[in-house]
Amino acid sequence: AESLLYPDRMEALELVRLPRLSRVAVCGGTHGNELSGVYLVRELLKEKEQRTEKRRAEEELEEPASPLMLLSNPRAIQQCRRYVDTDMNRCFTHAALSGPLSDTAPYEAVRSRELNTVLGPKGSQRAVDLVCDLHNTTSNMGLCFIAYSDSDWICLHIFQHLQRQIPDIPMRFIHFDVSRKESYSLDSVGKHGFAMEIGPQPHGVVRSNVYTVMRAGVQHMLDWVHFFNSGTVFKGGFVDVFTMVKNIDYPRDSLTHNITAAIHPLLQDRDFCLLHPEDPLFQTFSGETLRYKGTEPLYPFFINECAYYEKGIALSLARKRRVMIPAIRVQTEEERQAREQHFTSEEE
Amino acid sequence: MSSYHNSARLSQARKVAIFGGTHGNEMSGVALVNLWTKNGAEIQRRGVETKPFVANPKAVEKCCRYVDTDLNRAFTPENLSAPGGDDLPYEVQRAQEINRMFGPKGSPEAYDVIFDLHNTTSNMGCTLILESSKDHFNLQMMNYIKKAMAPASCLVLLNEHPLLKYSTSRSVAKHPVGLEVGPQPQGVLRSNIFEAMRVILKHALDFIELFNEGMEFPPCTVEAFRVSERIDYPRDTNGNIIAMVHPNLQDCDWEPLNPGDPMFQTFDGKTIHYQGSGTVYPTFINEAAYYEKQQAFVTTRRETLVASAIRKA
């Protein structure tokens, strides 16, 4: 039946068997002013505690292993700022996580190592199986997954599951083609990981519609993990993946470095609407339209994201392509042992 | 043109200032003041000296609302006369400096008009903020601006509330005018918001020029929303917020809120309803900066203000 999906192919993609996802982490407040994730993690922790107390009161067994929920950057959350000293979501490269830490190290450098101890160590067998890092953006991006790989079937299947469970919310899968070695964000600490980015929401504000979508997204992700671990076969399919190609900065004054134009009104809020050569990009303060001078039509995203002004990014551009994903299910215990023996004998 | 016997004779507005960056992350005002500092042709009018000014440069540099304390609450008599120099919080020092440059507040030397440019994350559209219902010059200006912008909307918010009123940077001038345009996230510049603010100022400066040249403005009425009450988020015993602005109220600034209407939604999905005694008009709904000031929104009541005829002395 699966080969009917791909009539032009000689054979269907084989069912892929993947290790169990025993430990899952949900992180909020990696940026302290992205509030949906902050309030959601706090609420989920509160609800878990209430359930635990109820179980104790009724002398029931402890809850089966539940996801690890944590607030990544407590000081930034307390001050309602993106970061205290430096952007924590750039602190997770292998280089940044190793080597000595000076006494004057930035707060986020110290904290990222703590998180690497709890959730990692990055790259080791002890790392958690899946990290879902919650973010908000001022851009009109709907719900996006942001991941380093376009072939991590776990992340792609979770994305596909969310698309089907919450069909009225626009969802996109964004791929940053960065090698494992150079990966820098919190979600790269787990064996699998992705950022769940939802907008538009101003920083420092929680919008109920955005919180509600994030809550549903996290819940469906956790449900999927449960189904996966229980042996469900997830059929293959197609996912449109947006791979980041380049960034465009604002035009700036050469002396002051102040921006001299704003995102053009015809581009504002049009994330993922194809941008063609000569389409308007910016409107200068004197009313002139500046146009896209690239030769290839590309998909814009992170249009007018507040935090990116200081990073020199007015918008990012992506290519879209359709990725086929295979059917997957969890490895059985025998398959897992056979694989381990195989690796052990290879080493010998 | 007939002359109105009850025309209030007011002195010309010779010294006008435009403040951007009273809050360093409210970008439309910052961008406009930077633009006009570089090239002020657009804001020149006959007989008026119009000075663009960055009110809180350190906060603008860091793109945050304030460094030590909110500049737009800092112009109290205590602060303005406080000794201590460099030991004072940055914004208190800055308030004293602004008071020297554009005041002193309450004196004959003070600037005639200060326009204070603000943005909000709330869906307030174009709003003019009035600090006194007896400022006939400002009332006439706001009437002029509203008519010039029509059919586009420009509403007037009156904050004369004895407890909720606060000491703004613009209060140094004889005629303080607040401009509040939203929605715009903090730290972000949206071109439609930037242009709207620009248009409001154009009309405001046109009014001043006409007034200074001797035009008589007949009596008029101005529809305004008078600040009534500040409503905080529901909180637990530790002071943590336990609910968000309800989706039915979010973005509904200036629309009637009736007793029984949904107001907040808890993080686990329950609705909390408005329990007031009558219909109110909420505004500043879900403004980012007000979480720390214990304000989810303010309620207002509609009122018709009357402005007498005015003419230059």
Automatic annotation (TrEMBL), chain A:
It catalyses: an N-acyl-aromatic L-alpha-amino acid + H2O = an aromatic L-alpha-amino acid + a carboxylate; an N-acetyl-L-cysteine-S-conjugate + H2O = an S-substituted L-cysteine + acetate. Keywords: Cell membrane, Cytoplasm, Hydrolase, Membrane, Metal-binding, Zinc. Its cofactor is Zn(2+). It is an enzyme of class 3 (hydrolase). It is found in: Apical cell membrane; Cytoplasm. Residues 239-320 form the AstE/AspA barrel-sandwich hybrid domain. The active site is at E197 (proton donor/acceptor). Belongs to the AspA/AstE family. Aspartoacylase subfamily. HAMAP family: Aspartoacylase. This is N-acyl-aromatic-L-amino acid amidohydrolase. It comes from Menidia menidia (Atlantic silverside).
From TrEMBL, chain B:
The lineage of its organism: Eukaryota, Metazoa, Chordata, Craniata, Vertebrata. This is Aspartoacylase. InterPro entries: AspA/AstE_fam, Aspartoacylase, AstE_AspA_cat, Aste_AspA_hybrid_dom. Zn(2+) binds at H23, E26, H118. One of its GO terms (cellular component) is cytosol. Residues 13-208 form the Succinylglutamate desuccinylase/Aspartoacylase catalytic domain. Belongs to the AspA/AstE family. Aspartoacylase subfamily. It holds the Pfam family AstE_AspA_cat. N-acetyl-L-aspartate binds at R65, E180, Y290. It comes from the Eukaryota. Its EC number is 3.5.1.15. GO terms for molecular function: aspartoacylase activity; hydrolase activity, acting on ester bonds; metal ion binding. It is found in: Cytoplasm; Nucleus. Substrate binds at N72, R73, Y166, S167, T168, S169, R170. Its cofactor is Zn(2+). The active site is at E180. Binds 1 zinc ion per subunit. Residues 221-301 form the AstE/AspA barrel-sandwich hybrid domain. Keywords: Cytoplasm, Hydrolase, Metal-binding, Nucleus, Zinc.
